[in-house]
Amino acid sequence: MTAESGLAALWLAAALAALQLFAGGMALTRKGEAMGGVVRPVAVVQGVLGLASFAALLIVFAQTDLSVKLVYANSHSAKPMMFKIAGAWGNHEGSMLLWVTVMGLAGAVVALVERRLPERTMLATLAGQAFVSLGFYVFLLFASNPFTRMVPEAEGKGLNPLLQDPGLAFHPPTLYIGYVGLSIAFSFAIGALITREVSPAFARAMRPWVLAAWIFLTLGITAGSYWAYYELGWGGWWFWDPVENASLMPWLAATALLHSCSVLASRNALRAWTVMLGVVAFSMSMVGTFLVRSGILTSVHAFAVDPKRGAFILVLLAIYIGGALLLFGLRASTVSEGERFSVVSRESALVFNNVMLSCILGIVLVGTLYPLLAESLGQQVSIGPPYFNPFTAIFVVPMLIVMAVGPLLRWRRDSFGRVRKALIIPLLLGLAGLVVAIVLAPSHVLPIIGLALAPAIGIASLLPLRARKLRQVKLPLWGMVFAHFGIAVSLFGMASDSAFTTEKLVAVNVGDKVAVGPWEIELKAIDPVAGPNWTAIEAGLQASYNGSAPILLHPQSRSFWTPPQQTNESALVTRWNGQLYAVLGEEAEDGRWQLRLWWKPFVPMIWFGGILVALGGLLALIGRVASDLRRISARGKIAYRRQRQGR
Amino acid sequence: MTAALKPKHQRLVLVVLAMVALIGAALLAIWGLRSNASYFYLPADIAAKPPTPDQAVRLGGMVETGSYKREADGVTIAFVVGDTKARVPVRFRGIVPDLFKEGSGVVAEGKLGEDGTFVADNLLAKHDEKYVPREMKAMTEAQARKTVEETK
């Protein structure tokens, strides 16, 4: 029954989305204004129904109800409970249900709390949200029903072992909230275009939603990168895999949107550009979904290869992106020009940042889509780091330099002379970093640039706090400082990993010792071990850092039996100055065991920096929401006082 | 963009600059793709038109039965990738993917050495039904089945 209830809730939610679109659309005409009243309640109920449907899916997975086809195909009664539940979205249908659930909930929250904008704009926005949701409801109901029943089988097929990891429980929902949260920005942009209301108030209303989505995207990308790092056992943290790019592209667009929002909110400039980024950001989310979920790419993320589904998503994509861009093209000229600003000003720096982010987005997008295009022309190519690393760096480096200077500039008009003094320290640090990097790692060009830039922008990102009383600094400014500092920290980790990693690949007997970087590692034992749905060969390694007290590591080579597959479980030792990474390979014919060892100086800084960036976003979000709440309550008090005086 | 510029002109200047940057990025991307794309080769393609030694390519085919050897260091392996028309010797130093075995498909990423040996720096093997390298799907259906039949 649970499955049927879930399906019923899904149908109802789809019907309500249609009603929301219809009522919202009618309310914009003169005749149908009375319809406006139902839009917000319908949006809320639609969100709740979506959630109910997703809850039903979680229940059938938790119970391992093998009469549901999806459970049979992706679960197994012997799986730990955590992976049973995570398995609900570790497949195509479930993840698409999660997508529409998040979308419905986001719309419901907007309908409940967002009252700053003119009501007509809000109705158009909610109608836009319903329009997008509706397409995905139809996709779920007709092409990817998660609740399809079947004749019950005795046992399920199990979940891809690579996905049986705590990272899975956290990574996809986080990314999805980020992806789909951007739909709010998309709908706001549509609403503003339809009613021609592009104003600083529009940017202020949109900003918290973009910030929230961006925080989740940042965390999702960070978590995904770490997951790939320790789970795949290749020692890398970013592979420019199309699926990774699919999450990076919305992040780049959302980052640009966030910054242009702040120009529009504070200075009433970049009006049309901000609207366009609102459209582009969610379009990138949809392109990402198409790449990941259509089966056009094969990777651990592409669950089902079904051309019908790919074509379906492609049509949705064409309708939404094409439609929104067409609307933008028709209406952009009616969005009036914003305020002026001079070449040296905060606005200019932010414009530069936006253009660079767009260029990076373009480079990544072209590199990601090119293999698909080439394949359709009959040639198979793959595009990897030799393309992505240098070509994104061309735009990343100037962007980071401007990121260091921009926050020091004043709005409207400024001169470099005023900030020159403050920048001396970062400049000297950068030069020092450059010299040190050239001496230590002369052959790596990009890491050298990174090692020089990281300390410079790290210090420069703190400069906006200078000559201020720290207790009086507002949260959004703290947020910016944290986020920019996090970028510097992350950059340092990336550059240090590329420049200073040492690697050893050896075949050893028990009792043999291997040196890698400052570590000495001894293979103590090889033992069989067993888990709930796997068995493994486990190496007992004793690692000692520069002769200090030994630490034990246990990398495993695991064999899962549902489905039968092997994975390498790496073992890590984290120190403040880096990570030791060990992978156990196979047994050679002469009885020696393969070991792959890396010493990666400062590599954890990559993800630590990512967390700092997200934390910065959170601080800014809290600051913005708190000041909005204060304004609302102040307005309420004034209204109340007026009312009493009136009496 | 001095203060004398009207808002309309400033917008025009900004739009033009942004377009120039984006078109520049697109041209750069196209140029970069041409010189950095890694093409997919079957053994027959390697025999017909070998890639230059500095060109990163992907080689896909079946691991020939009986060709797999491990060198004395315990971590370097050598094998032959073949299709019905040609054979290419491959060397790889690293941990072999779990489902890599003789008589089964593989995609090797690397470069073709001067001596005709393909030096792989990464191997992709068929993982399970759910995860097959993209090139291998077409291959396993078209050539591989035949190859498997012949090498059985």
Supply the key terms.
heterodimer; A: 647 residues; alpha+beta; four-stranded antiparallel β-sheet; 18 helices; 11 strands; globular; B: 152 residues; five-stranded mixed barrel; 7 strands; 36% helix; 28% strand; Heme lyase CcmF/NrfE family subunit (chain A)
Task: Explain what you see.
Chain A: The chain crosses the membrane at residues 6-29, 41-62, 96-113, 122-143, 176-196, 208-228, 248-265, 272-291, 311-330, 351-373, 393-411, 423-441, 447-465, 477-495, 605-627. Chain A: It is found in: Cell inner membrane. Chain A: Residues 314-624 form the Cytochrome c-type biogenesis protein CcmF C-terminal domain. The complex is a heterodimer of chains A (647) and B (152). Chain A is of the alpha+beta class. Chain A is 63% helix and 12% strand. Chain A is built from 18 helices and eleven strands. In chain A, strands 3, 4, 5, 6, 7 and 8 form a six-stranded antiparallel β-sheet that branches. In chain A, a hairpin with a 2-residue loop joins strand 7 (556-561) and strand 8 (564-569). Chain A is globular. Chain A starts with a helix and ends with a helix. Mean pLDDT of chain A is 88; it is low at 299-304. Chain B is of the alpha+beta class and 152 residues long. Chain B folds into two domains: 1-37; 39-125, OB fold (Dihydrolipoamide Acetyltransferase, E2P) (Beta Barrel). Chain B is built from three helices and seven strands. Chain B has helices at residues 7-36, 43-48, 134-151; strands spanning 38-41, 57-63, 69-70, 76-82, 87-93, 105-112, 118-125. A five-stranded mixed beta barrel of chain B has the order 2-4-5-7-6. Chain B is elongated. The relative contact order of chain B is 0.15. The interface between A and B is large, with 61 and 49 residues.
Helix content percent band of chain B: 25-40%
Provide the β-strand percentage band of chain B: 25-35%
Regions with little confidence, pLDDT below 50 for 5+ residues of chain A: 299-304
Q: Overall 3D geometry of chain A?
A: globular
Number of strands of chain B: 7
Tell me what portion of residues of chain A adopts beta-strand conformation. 5-15%
Biggest β-sheet of chain A: count, sense, barrel?
6 strands, antiparallel
- Regions with little confidence, pLDDT below 50 for 5+ residues of chain B: 127-131, 144-152
Structural class of chain A comes to alpha+beta
Helix/strand order of chain A: HHHHHHHHHHHHEHHHHHEEEEEEEEEEH
Encode the helix/strand succession of chain B as letters: HEHEEEEEEH
Rounded Rg of chain B:
23 Å
Can you summarize the main beta sheet of chain B? 5 strands, mixed, barrel
Subcellular location (chain A): Cell inner membrane
Protein name (chain A): Heme lyase CcmF/NrfE family subunit
GO molecular function (chain A): lyase activity
Pfam families (chain A): CcmF_C, Cytochrom_C_asm
